[in-house]
Design a protein that fits this description.
66 residues; mainly alpha
């Protein structure tokens, strides 16, 4: 059985609340606009291509390349 299932409910709820808070702050930085967030992430990808992990070939099969 997974250790995650043995976690007390209160601790799990606290962790979820903390994750939601961080996600909210990130969203707030971009005016809660998902398009602005994605545009920012795409710029980061261009600036740091060495940090990208390529998708498995099965996921890219049949997709157009640039």
């Amino acid at each position: 059985m997974s250790q995650d299932l043995d976690m007390p409910v209160d601790q799990g709820e606290e962790e979820i609340a903390a994750i939601r808070e961080v996600r909210h702050r990130i969203s707030e930085q971009f005016g809660h606009d998902p398009y602005r967030l994605v545009a920012h992430l795409m710029e980061l990808q261009k600036e740091h291509p060495e940090k990208l992990v390529p998708a498995p070939e099965a996921e890219t099969a049949g997709k157009a390349t640039e």
